[in-house]
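A favour, since you know our structure tokens better than I do. Could you add the entry underneath, on a fresh line?
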Amino acid sequence: MALLQGWQGAIYELWRERNRHYHDGLSLPPVRVANHVIVSVENKCSAMHQLGSKRGLSILQCWFGSV
């Protein structure tokens, strides 16, 4: 499940970067795109946890160590 969250976050952020480059002519450095992926995964997992899913906390711990 944690791998899926990471995969979805990466695809989404790469898509956003492509659109940013295509439509606005702007590009972010790869480090910033990677940071956006990490924040996206963290936000998804936090939302899952707040909505009562037991998986949210376990995925957060898998991705970020002890929470």
